Amino acid sequence: MSTGRVSIRTDDFDLGAEVAALRQGDGGVGAVVAFIGTVRDRNEGAAVQSLELEHYPGMTEAAIEAMIDEAMRRFEIRAARVVHRVGLLAPSAQIVLVAVTAPHRGDAFQACEFLMDYLKTQAPFWKKEAGPGGTRWVDARVADDAALARWGIAAGNAADGAGDAPDQR
Amino acid sequence: MKVTVRYFAAVREALGPGEEIEIGGGSDIAALRDALIARGGRHAEALGRERLLRSAHNRVLSPEGTPLGDGDEVGFFPPLTGG
C-alpha cells in the first residue's frame, strides 16, 4: 500500500488496511466513511466481460489532490485518501476507493460523496468496456454532471453546451 | 512557438499518443484544434467540431479559449468517465 493522499495504480487495494492507515495516530477521528466503486457485469443492458481504464498520468494525481484540498476547505474532515485503479479489470473488481475521516459523521458522509461526484467528471480517466459484441468507450453521463452541480460546481463534461470545464487552478 | 499535444482514449486510438506542433504566437487551444482539423484525414475525423471533446492546458482541465505559450502541453480527449 502506497502512502500519500492519492494512489493511481494497477494493483488492488484493501479497504481495512487503507482505513487503518488513514486513522492511525489521529485521536480526533470520530467517523470514517469509505466508498468503493466496482465493475458491474452489465452496463446499459449489455454484458461486460472486462473494463479497461486509461488515465492522463501527472494530471490525474494533481486533479485529485486539488479535489481533496477543496474537500478540506468545505468540510470539517481530518484526512482523505483516493485510490483509483487503471488497466484491465474483471467484473466485480474494485475500481476506486474514497475514504474520509472526520470528527463527526455528517461531514464525513458529505466529503466522501463530494469527492466521488467531483472525481467522476473532473479526473482524467476513461473506461472502455469489452463484451460479446466487441469493445466500446463508455459514454459520459449527464447525471454525473448534475451530481456535481448539486455542490455548486459546473462540470461541463458530458453535456454539450454546458460550457467549458472549470479551471481547477 | 512549439506545443506538445497529447491524446487520450478514442482520440489516442485514432492519432497516437501525441505530437509536437508548431503554431503561431498568440494562439489559444481552439486555434490549435482548428489547425489540427485543417490537416484533414484522421485528424479532421478525430478532432472535428462535431465531436464533444475536452481539453487540458499544462495538465489542468481548461476551456478552449485558454491562450498558449511556447513549450505548453495541451491534451485533447473525450468527456471523462472515471470512478
Under CATH, the topology of chain B can be stated as Ubiquitin-like (UB roll)
Can you summarize the main beta sheet of chain B? 5 strands, mixed
What is the strand content of chain A?
25-35%
End-to-end CA span of chain B? 36 Å
Q: How far is it from the N-terminal to the C-terminal residue of chain A, by CA?
A: 29 Å
Identify the most extensive interface between protein chains: A-B, 39 and 24 residues
CATH architecture of chain A: Alpha-Beta Complex
Query: How many distinct folded domains of chain A?
Result: 1
Mind telling me the CATH class of chain B?
Answer: Alpha Beta
Radius of gyration of chain A: 16 Å
**Into which percent range does the helicity of residues of chain A fall?**
25-40%
Report the β-strand fraction of chain B as a percent range: 25-35%
Computed structural class of chain B: alpha+beta
Quaternary state, please?
heterodimer
CATH-defined fold name of chain A:
Aldehyde Oxidoreductase, domain 3
Write down the domain tally of chain B: 1
Overall mean confidence score, pLDDT of chain B: 98
Describe this structure in words.
- The complex is a heterodimer of chains A (169) and B (83).
- In chain A, 30% of the residues lie in helices and 31% in strands.
- Chain A has 169 residues and is α+β, with helices and mostly antiparallel strands.
- Chain A has a single domain (6-149), classed as Aldehyde Oxidoreductase, domain 3 (Alpha-Beta Complex), CATH 3.90.1170.40.
- Chain A has a four-stranded mixed beta sheet, sandwiched between helices.
- The longest helix of chain A has 18 residues, at 105-122.
- The model of chain A is unreliable at 161-169 (pLDDT under 50).
- Chain B is an alpha+beta fold.
- Chain B has one domain: Ubiquitin-like (UB roll), CATH 3.10.20.30.
- In chain B, 28% of the residues lie in helices and 27% in strands.
- Chain B is built from three helices and five strands.
- The longest helix of chain B is centred in the middle third of the chain and has 9 residues, at 29-37.
- The radius of gyration of chain B is 12 Å and the shape is globular.
- The mean pLDDT of chain B is 98.
- Classes of the chains: A alpha+beta (169), B alpha+beta (83).
- Chain A binds chain B through residues 37, 53-56, 58-59, 62-63, 84, 95-96, 116, 119-128, 137-140, 144, 156-158, 160, 163-169, and chain B through 6, 8-10, 12, 52, 54-56, 59-65, 75, 77-83.
